[in-house]
Specification:
The chain is an alpha+beta fold. The chain has one domain (6-119). Helix content is 21%, strand content 30%. Strands 2-3-7-6 form a four-stranded mixed beta sheet. The longest helix has 18 residues, at 76-93. The termini are far apart.
């Protein structure tokens, strides 16, 4: 049934050298700890592997609560990454994510290590 898939949302994703931090109001779902085994399993899906990553917790949300946006002035790589994410959500749920609970902001950090004015640790 379209729109019924539940998604595990991790605070920071890494994809093709892009940072995709999840920012946005408070999520309805509780954040729970991620086991080392689950962290390793998720890292097996990242290509290339980031130099440093930590996945301290996860929140499970309905896909209808998630929004994917790109930073203002985004380039081709950022727009392509956002498009791939939107297509993945659409193929799994039947709709493009346009929620208001959790935002996945796609972009490349600036020279100061910030994305849209937010520090990336």
């Amino acid at each position: 049934m379209p729109g019924t898939m539940r998604c595990i949302v991790v605070g920071i994703f890494a994809l093709s050298g892009l940072l995709l931090p999840g920012f946005s109001g408070s999520a309805k779902a509780a954040v729970t700890a991620v086991s080392k085994d689950q962290e390793r399993a998720w890292l097996n899906h990242l290509i290339p592997l980031p130099h440093e990553i930590a996945i301290p917790g996860k929140a499970v949300l309905p896909c209808s609560d998630i929004r994917i946006t790109v930073r203002p002035g985004a380039g081709e790589l950022e727009n392509s990454a956002a498009s791939e994410l939107q297509n993945m959500f659409k193929s799994k749920t039947g709709s493009v994510p346009d929620g208001k609970v959790f935002e996945i902001l796609v972009g490349i950090a600036d020279g100061g290590g910030k994305l849209c004015g937010r520090a990336i640790d």
